[in-house]
Amino acid sequence: MAEERFKKAETLEMRKRLIGQSLRLFYSDDPVKIVKARGQYLFDENGKRFLDCISNVQHVGHCHPDITKAAAAQMDLLNANSRFLHDNIVLYADRLAATLPEKLSVFYFVNSGSEANDLALRLAEQYTQHEDVIVLDHAYHGHLKSLIDISPYKFRKLTGQKEWVHVAPLPDTYRGIYREEHPNPGQAYADTVKDLIEEISRKGRKIAAFFAESMPSVGGQIILPQGYSSKVAEYVRSAGGVFVADEVQTGFGRTGTHFWAFQLQGEDFCPDIVTMGKPMGNGHPLACVATTVEIAAAFTANGVEYFNTFGGNPVSCAIGLAVLDVIEKEDLRGNAVRVGTHLKDLLKKLQTRHEIIGDVRGVGLFVGLELVTDRQSKTPATKTAAQVVKRLKEEDQICVSTDGPWENILKFKPPMCFSMEDAQLVVQCIDRILTDMKADNLKLENEDI
């Protein structure tokens, strides 16, 4: 077991004293102190093992030996900035290009999803010579100031909406304005973007980009309705804008069936810019923007050099290549299909037994379990969701977190090595906890009577 330098209470005290308090710890009432991890498991300072359903960043599993080996070998040989000619950056770009539609053939390497999304904004503005951006309600695209401005999830709590930012309805077919029973929710939601573009045009403003996650995550593990992205892209391009697909949370095979979540929208759909990050380096800071030759040329033509000190360095690219190798070698996309389908099926069975489960949705190892106090009104069961998360950690050593505007959705974005047995265990434990809570509520109601 890894050496523990301080007792948990000391680490907590030092963290409160030395680290900015705007970042909340997981399980802040009683944080888990993690000293080691392997695969889909975390270990605390006492050697207790926790099943990790949270860490989508550790995409191929915590501390994967192939990744560690590739990182150490390259670090021992060379790590320099990308102004020096080196094979790794072009090898890696070539491997990424093979996973994407042909027109997305130019790459900019950076260090985080936030950097990637900020650069995507600059590319869109430079190419279109427009400023305005359309985003989805409840969206989150990163922590830089430029991205807070296009993230309703954040700006609503801060300075509010800028005049160049426009918010389209989230295409949520469970609780949105157009629901599952609608004959064509993809078209209906796309038309809300069309209406927004017309409204913007009437104000004499012009669209630079429509900017959206391929599967909105903070918005509540949303799967976009079929046909939505193609129609939106058509409307946005007609208005002189570009379509940016944020794959920071969803890329690299998490859907299982496809390498990128935007590909779920059909073979005929291709964004103009794709951003990627989180899982790309399996925990190492590595991110990227992929775009077209035309957009890249417009960015070069502005005469201002774009240099990123650490972006695309040999070590980062060696790690990125190793991640791609592991995804293929261990058939992690196939695993995401098999385990994700099994997890969803088990949760749907649970839904038939627990009235509080309003919706089960997802694809591959991107799954959401929405809890509601009433299935008709769909009132978010925020307190119950928090209680389930707390009990899973305390009673079962399972780490799960919540998401969505009301924090009532249990989200599952585990490392891609998550197994059938893991899925079964999680669902069994959720079943037991919800059954317990139902019995406790009944007891309280009887006592009230």
From TrEMBL:
Top-rank taxon, per record: Eukaryota
InterPro entries: Aminotrans_3, Aminotrans_3_PPA_site, PyrdxlP-dep_Trfase, PyrdxlP-dep_Trfase_major, PyrdxlP-dep_Trfase_small
One Gene Ontology MF term: transaminase activity
Cofactor(s), by name: pyridoxal 5'-phosphate
CDD domains: OAT_like
Keywords, ordered alphabetically: Lyase, Pyridoxal phosphate
GO cellular component: mitochondrion
SUPFAM superfamilies xrefs: PLP-dependent transferases
Family in the record: Belongs to the class-III pyridoxal-phosphate-dependent aminotransferase family.
PANTHER family membership: 5-PHOSPHOHYDROXY-L-LYSINE PHOSPHO-LYASE (PTHR45688:SF6), PTHR45688
Protein name from the UniProt record: 5-phosphohydroxy-L-lysine phospho-lyase
Biological source species: Cyprinodon variegatus
Organism lineage: Eukaryota, Metazoa, Chordata, Craniata, Vertebrata
